Amino acid sequence: MVASTSELRTLFASLDGNADGRISAAELGVCMRATLGEDIPAAEAEALWRRWTRTATGCWCITPASLGRMLGKLGNERAVGECRAMICRFDLDGDGVLSFDEFKIMMSA
């Protein structure tokens, strides 16, 4: 069964304990502790987080490259530098990508 967008948002929000739009290694550790019923070493949580974020990049945020691909599919190709500049206008935390909340702000502007 495929999860709906609202189900995915609810899941993400439950993992994002401080509501900053990102799931940190510490928050992943809390989730694993709740799921497995035991503590996992911080280093193991960090390793899982790094592995997960490496494969999940673009799923929870918009990168300059993913923005460029999307615009290209819409027939409005842009260079990565141009996409980086577009993201920079709405990148409130300065991490170089748009979180879901930053994307909502961009869409309402």
TrEMBL record:
<dbReference type="Pfam" id="PF00036">
    <property type="entry name" value="EF-hand_1"/>
</dbReference>
<dbReference type="InterPro" id="IPR018247">
    <property type="entry name" value="EF_Hand_1_Ca_BS"/>
</dbReference>
<feature type="domain" description="EF-hand">
    <location>
        <begin position="3"/>
        <end position="38"/>
    </location>
</feature>
<dbReference type="InterPro" id="IPR039647">
    <property type="entry name" value="EF_hand_pair_protein_CML-like"/>
</dbReference>
<keyword id="KW-0106">Calcium</keyword>
<dbReference type="InterPro" id="IPR002048">
    <property type="entry name" value="EF_hand_dom"/>
</dbReference>
<dbReference type="Pfam" id="PF13202">
    <property type="entry name" value="EF-hand_5"/>
</dbReference>
<dbReference type="InterPro" id="IPR011992">
    <property type="entry name" value="EF-hand-dom_pair"/>
</dbReference>
<protein>
    <recommendedName>
        <fullName>EF-hand domain-containing protein</fullName>
    </recommendedName>
</protein>
<dbReference type="GO" id="GO:0005509">
    <property type="term" value="F:calcium ion binding"/>
</dbReference>
<feature type="domain" description="EF-hand">
    <location>
        <begin position="78"/>
        <end position="109"/>
    </location>
</feature>
<keyword id="KW-0479">Metal-binding</keyword>
<keyword id="KW-0677">Repeat</keyword>
